[in-house]
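yo

u said u wanted the structure for the complex thing, so here. seqs first:
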Amino acid sequence: MSAMNPSFSHRAKPLTLNDSAWVRYTLILISLLTIGLFLILPLATVLIAAFAKGWSTYSSSLAEPDALAAMRLTLLTAAITVPLTTVFGVSAAWAIARFEFKGKNLLITLIDLPFSVSPVIAGLIYVLIFGAQGWLGPWLSDHDIKIIFAVPGIVLATLFVTFPFVARELIPLMQEIGHEEEEAALSLGASGWQTFFKITVPNIKWGLLYGVLLCNARAMGEFGAVSVVSGHIRGLTNTLPLHVEVSYNEYDFVGAFASASLLAGLAVVTLVVKTFLEWKQKQDLKAARQAAAE
Amino acid sequence: MSISLSNISKQFGAFKALDNINLEIPEGELVALLGPSGCGKTTLLRIIAGLEQADQGDVFLKGNKVTDQPVKNRQIGFVFQHYVLFRHMTVFDNIAFGLRVKPRKQRPNETEIRDKVHSLLHLVQLDWLHDRFPDQLSGGQRQRIALARALAVEPSVLLLDEPFGALDASVRKDLRLWLRHLHHELNVTSIFVTHDQEEAMEVSSQIVVLNHGKIEQKGTPSEIYDQPQSDFVSRFIGQTNVFRIEDDDHDWLKSTGIIVDDPQGVVAHVRPHNISVEKTADPGNSPVYLKDWQHLGGTIRLELNRDGHNGSATTIYAEMPNEQFKDLALHKGDRVALRIKHAHWFN
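structre next:
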């Protein structure tokens, strides 16, 4: 337990840099300009375009049935995928941090797969499996089950792209914390579930929330994979990101940017909460390391 | 028998951690599992607790076979080396944990829990810490809270894994005596693991010496010290001088009193207090001189060097009371004569 990752415990002192003032200022300026030009400016443009025709047009374009349907579908997708991803993430992290088994490294690699595959491919995979021409297509149509161009396909595609988030957050955290506290709880007569909810969850809660937050942001914002399986049926299979594209293509700029502003708002909220959770999580990790070092 | 182990073996890959352990521990004993690191003592403790499964063999607690029972059904109290208090709970909640997770029918109500926790806090003399969090406590306090937490569920067996290993020397000394007294008061059968022979001698009523996954010897501290049954036990418990009869100077050994004409073994182990040191009448003929000495409280440890002999016991340690050393009025470099009063023989 006390063997810690040296890169964490003995962080090297920053090098004393003797770069001249203008080098420093140029570098800082370049960073600021880049962020301003490519991040702040577009975000501002979204808001400006959304409110170009005033508040009432903005609010009425959001109150439009298709926009509302897109919001509902987005929330539904997140409401289904986030809990599933959380359950998967906790079980995978538990298995990897607690047990030694063959294929453990393969599992860790596979968990990262969605990060390295283009989301469009992820969507296409599901079309190939469940689509009308796909492996299971005939069987599904015989039994009148719709997956592609329907909500189940959207949920599946979103699941594919989001399932690493919670697991990747928890694996290093649970490895660091170790399982002695859980052993102590068991020795005191606690059942497996009691141990999980009273000991494990409190210890990993900030990391877990962090993973859930990132997963939620991705679930609501995913475009590529969902676009392939959705079929863009207005009011039925459009999520918010798809609704933005469809509205834009139909020259409904205010509608497109109004919906985009919601997604941008979600991003800002996510960023703020994320910063808070990161800080909390760091404190937890520090405490875990301290406990391990003693 | 409160704890009984039969034919316990455990293997980690190619490494044999425990090799056919049989052990009976009577009710109410305070037993030390003593051995060097890697001897299997912690593994054995964890197998008794159910935190580890033996590859073969059975564990009986109070006559019941518990080999296949999970930890939570074994009614044991386990105290971890690094205390392992629940970080996110106060001291009070830590101690109350075992009571609060009981099935609803056996669970005491909150008033009973409060009384119990406070009586335990009183027992470990830390009443005033009930609302602190573990990271606000010192090591010694944490260890006592960990003990109180384990005692809350009224275990039939108390298991302690290197309970003093992570503490400062002075705190460790206090806690050892305290644990012994506590055991006297509660009389719950207890096993503690240690690699420190002094600690084992001081605290326990029985010592089990383990080496390479096997029991070398079991007995009271004085039996272990005075009648070591193996070369390993003799070396591991206390200090000992080793004389290899075959390749030693027989004339000199005879002069010290070890019988060489009819030796009872190949190797003679001699405790420092079994060597008496005298000024020699014939300094030219004695190969031994006083190199240095250390004060160990009431006794003096003499470090004696032996000329021209490589192999067995080139540095010999002897111990004698302070006054006796003063009377001898020895100086560094003085030649001395040795008399060996008692030796343990091994093959």
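Residues 302 and 328 of chain B are 12 Å apart (CA to CA). The first helix of chain B runs from residue 41 to 49.
cya
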